[in-house]
Amino acid sequence: RFVPVSDRNLAFAETVCARFSREGIRADIDDREESVNKKIREAGMDWVPYVAVVGDREAETATLTVTIRSLSEPKKPHRETLSPGDLAARIAEETGGMPFRPLYTPRKISKKPRFI
Known about the structure:
There is one protein chain. This protein is of the alpha+beta class. It has a single domain, classed as Anticodon-binding domain (Rossmann fold, 3-Layer(aba) Sandwich), CATH 3.40.50.800. The protein contains four helices and four strands; from the N terminus they run βααβαββα. The protein has a four-stranded mixed beta sheet with strand order 1-2-3-4, with helices on both faces. The protein is globular.
């Protein structure tokens, strides 16, 4: 999941997300008007394995600050700075040989139905 810090970072997040979709990797963008901490917390509750925060620094350097759920511990998230290509390669390596299921809902979280 890509979490843009502000609206001006949304274009870079959409570009990277589209690239992941072309490479057969399911990804979505949390474009809601919530705080970044709330978006990250909700991604954890949704069991999202990789959460990439996209801010000005990431857009300028074309890198991603990624929280990796499988390497994180409670109250100690494991973060790495990766290029989009390196992250895509890591995910492809982990999911190699597994069946692919496309994303059935819209790519942007704000457009997905929420059940209360």
